[in-house]
Each structure stands twice: as structure tokens, then as C-alpha cells.
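Suppose you are handed only these lines of text.
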Amino acid sequence: MNNSKQLNYLSCYSPEVQQQARTLLDANKAGAWLLRKYPQAHELGSEKALYEYAQGIKNQYMRSSSPISKVVYDDKIHVINNALGLHTYVSRVQGKKLKAKNEIRVSSLFRRVPEPLLRMILVHELAHLREKEHGKAFYKLCCHMEPDYHQLEFDLRLYLCHRDRFGELWE
Ligand SMILES: [Zn+2]
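From them, the structure of the protein bound to zinc ion can be written out as follows.
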């Protein structure tokens, strides 16, 4: 995979920021930087723990939004560009009723990342319960739930670039 392709994860940032990231990645220094900042992977490997963690954030900040029925890891989600997770609104006919359910799917690769980065993904997907588009209101809600949201998203995207070239950081 070539360098420009790896920087796809960072294509939404300014050329200056992309250049800084490229310099770190070319020197293989991004990994060490990320490990210093985030020494450990989270311990939310089970889907029960994942669901409860997401539900905890929702209860604190988005109590009035429609409930989430499921939060799962999904190994079929390929992380490219902006698709870090997936929020689906599933409608099914059950008997004579139309049942709608909110499900959050998180790419399986986030089983082995530090808690702050997983939290950023969940905050993002939870915000979609209220805001479908990635507009101003959407990011305002993300930052309300996680004040460090933008930095965490950058760090996560930097990790994805690192991972493509050098492999996983947290076991
Ligand atoms: Zn989104």
C-alpha cells in the first residue's frame, strides 16, 4: 500500500497537518508517540461490556434519544475514509407491527485500541442517533459528550495509517 493511500484516513485535514503526519509515519515514530499517550488497550472485549459502556455514555448525555438495542463488534466493517463505525436503523416487520431498532456496529479492529479511542467511535455513532449528517450540530454534540473529540479522532486516524504500514500497536 502506498503512502498517499495510507493518508486517506487523514484526507480531511489541512496539508500542513498531513505533512506532519507523513513525517512521523515515514520515520516510524507515530507508533511510539501513540503508545506513550495511550499505553493500554481497553478491556471492553465482550459485547456485553461494550453495550454497557455505550449505554453509560448515552444515559449521561443523550438520555432522551431513542434507545439503542445493540452494540456489537463487526468484522465485516472495513475501515476506510470516514466509515469508522456504523450506525444502522433497522426496521423489521414482526407480526403486524413495524419494529425499528437502533444498532451500533463497531469494526472488530477496535477491540484492541485504548479506551479513549473506542470512546470516540461510540460518541460518534451515538451522535448519529440525533444528527444524521456530519454537520456543525453533529460535531457540537460529539464535543459535548467528549470535549477532546477532535484530537481523539485525529489520533485514531493516525493509528489507522500506522497500522496499515507497521501493524497493530496494542495486543
Ligand atoms: Zn458518521
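What can we learn from it? The chain has a mean pLDDT of 87. The chain has one domain: 3-166.
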